[in-house]
Amino acid sequence: MVKKIAVLPGDGIGPEVTEAAVHILKAVAKNTNQQFEFHYGNIGGVAIDEEGDPFPSSTEELCKSSDAVLLGAVGGPKWDQNEPALRPEKGLLAMRKNLGLFANLRPVKAYGPLLDSSPLKREVVEDVDVLIMRELTGGIYFGKHEREQVNGEWQALDTLTYSESEITRIAKKAFEAAKLRDQRVVSVDKANVLESSRLWREVVDRMKTDYPDITVEHMLVDNAAMQLIHGPSQFDVILTENMFGDILSDEASMLTGSLGLLPSASLGDQGVGLFEPIHGSAPDISGQNIANPLAAIASAAMLLKYGFEMEDEAKAIDDAILKALEAGYRTKDIATEQGAVSTTTEMTEAVIKALR
What we know:
Blueprint: E1 2-10, H1 14-32, E2 35-40, H2 45-51, H3 57-64, E3 68-73, H4 88-98, E4 103-109, H5 122-125, E5 129-135, E6 145-150, E7 153-158, H6 164-179, E8 184-189, H7 195-207, E9 215-220, H8 221-230, E10 237-240, H9 242-253, E11 263-267, E12 273-277, H10 294-308, H11 311-326, H12 344-355
């Protein structure tokens, strides 16, 4: 059966790394007789320029008619002065909301050949294998954002709201993921200050009875941020709300040495999933063929695993990434001073060679 994949390259280095992921998926199809169709659409800044909307209706229709969505990156200084409704990031938020993608999965696993690329000591990061489960369509990012003048000065208001059902569905995803891993969940909140976090903690505690084999620990977000640096291997699955997850996942990405290594998946209860690297559009290096494609390639592996239930094919990609790194291939962001620097194309070809 042919699988239809919507490809949204986006801005900056998005087209380069996304094309690398497409090449990998084509190699998988050739090796396994799978059939993939790739259909391209606009999102972010390029969509604003060409269609006047960061998430055009044509792109939404393409996504909803596809079996999975592969995305590059959005944003850049070109659009920084746009009004809020015409910012590239609005396209990403609208897509998550309109496609019902409430669960963001961000795996953070240290690659053996790159342990010395981490800013932390080798012994601190060598056993890191964390899955961050971030709620994606609620919280402060989707609350009201208002300004008003009070006593002659501007006052800004951003509201943070969560319902029991929103917390329940993301917690379920975390518990189900933990069943397939080391059966440990750390739920991160700020329950000593925020009422939304107190509700979050109550719902998670209530759900523990349905998962008696899962060990659950609550941790305040400031402590979690510290523990990710002090002892990251203590974590298995981290469950948290939208803004905390955004911050902690970027922090955790540096355990591996580069944002250019980490993929993500955004899923709902059903329907199409979104797969993208967690790095930004990096406009300062776009078009130079030096961007690290490994996060996008690993996102393609997650697409196969979570989107198409092709676990063997997904593992083959992950293994090929490791083999390419073991063979000494390094893009600029992970290269040592003594080592040769690989281009985006060379790194992609190295992974394809390893797949063969």
